Amino acid sequence: MPIENFGHGLHRVVYVSRMVEMSEEQLKQEADEIIDASRRRNAAQALTGLLLAHEGFFIQALEGSHDALVAVMDQIAADPRHCDIKVVGVEPITERAFGRWSMRGGASKSDSGFDPYAMTLADLMALLRVSAVMGARRSAA
Ligand SMILES: Cc1cc2nc3c(=O)[nH]c(=O)nc-3n(C[C@H](O)[C@H](O)[C@H](O)COP(=O)(O)O)c2cc1C
Fold first, then answer.
1. Helix (H, G, I), strand (E, B), or coil: what is residue 113?
2. Chain centroid to CA 105: how far?
3. Predicted TM-score of the model (pTM)
4. What is the mean pLDDT of residues 125-136?
5. CATH no. for residue 51?
6. How far does residue 26's CA lie from ligand 1's centre (Å)?
């Protein structure tokens, strides 16, 4: 679902990806780096959203202008800390669901059977919305 096919107004991208193998400790370090980069770039580009790290997967919603989303998704897609990026939704929106950018979670791989690739866009958005109000482990407004 290429972002390029949409207009230039406010859009939301939702994707899921798989973390590369890493320990809980490593994940903490990588999460700090991702948060630092996101704090800088996203605020400057008026990007908001939520990044959820759960059971060895990332689920992220990002909202902003078409151009800002294309640029940041290029960066994110090339990031070696995750793979199998599946963009589940790209849609024009009139209102943001997330008022700032933040990150939740932080669990590395387990065998709970959690599989975000099997989830619909609506289910992923519901999970992200609940996570957003579950209290911040870290945030970058
Ligand atoms: C799952 C995941 C989500 C990310 N989300 C963002 C993001 O929302 N904004 C951002 O700028 N970088 C994000 N990054 C980091 C970028 O891939 C990249 O490392 C960063 O933009 C590089 O910034 P720099 O060149 O300024 O150091 C994310 C990385 C991963 C693995």
1. coil
2. 12
3. 0.90
4. 87
5. 3.30.70.100
6. 16
Residue 5 per-residue DSSP state: G
Q: What is the pLDDT of residues 53-99, one digit of tens each?
A: 999 999 999 999 999 999 999 999 999 999 999 999 999 999 999 99
Cα 115 to ligand 1 centre (Å): 23
Per-residue confidence (pLDDT) for residue 118, from 0 to 100: 97
pLDDT at 5: 45
Q: Which of 38, 60, 83 best tests ligand 1's pocket when mutated (most atoms within 8 Å of CB)?
A: 38
At 92, which amino acid appears?
Answer: P
What does residue 5 show for φ and ψ, rounded to 5 degrees? -75, 0
Is pLDDT above 80 for 35? Answer: yes
Instruction: Provide CB contacts within 8 A for 18, sequence distance 6+.
Output: 56, 57, 58, 82, 83, 84
For ligand 1, atom 24, which residue shows the shortest CA distance? Answer: 37
Å from CA of 76 to ligand 1 middle: 5
- The domain tally of the chain equals 1
Domain extent at residue 136: 3-140
Task: Tell me, in angstroms, the distance from the centre of ligand 1 to residue 20's CA.
Answer: 15
